[in-house]
Amino acid sequence: MSLLDGLASSPRASLQSSKARMKKLPKKSQNEKYRLKYLRLRKAAKATVFENAAICDEIARLEEKFLKAKEERRSSPTDLAFMMRVPSTPWAIAVLEYMPA
């Protein structure tokens, strides 16, 4: 029996082989850890993109609302009456009745 045969059958040799197997296990769990981190980050990025799109839509809606209010404020009722040639005072009605079209 040689010295190598004695080492192979010793309990220490079996411990070393189990250590070699143990090294593979942490690598798998480490891969799983990073895979889960990746999935969480991906989910967070997707949620951020949707939130950003919702905020952009809301800003566009508010800008449209402000522009509409600004336009309505600029065109007061007297300006509209003038543009439509609708008299707003009794004397203007009398003048328009006597003016030829």
Describe this structure in words.
Residues 1-29 are annotated as: Disordered. It comes from Gorilla gorilla gorilla (Western lowland gorilla). This is Transforming growth factor beta regulator 1. This protein is rod-shaped. With 101 residues, it is an all-alpha fold. The longest helix has 64 residues, at 11-74. It has helices spanning 3-9, 11-74, 77-84, 90-98. It has a domain at 28-87. The protein has 4 helices and no strands.
Order of helices and strands: HHHH
Distance between the termini: 130 Å
Number of strands: 0
What amount of the residues lies in strands? under 5%
Using only C-alpha atoms, the radius of gyration works out to 42 Å
Low-confidence stretches: none
Helical content band: over 70%
What's the mean pLDDT score? 75
Global outline? rod-shaped
**What about the largest sheet?**
none
User: How would you classify the quaternary structure?
Assistant: single chain
User: Which structural class do the helices and strands define?
Assistant: mainly alpha
Number of helices: 4
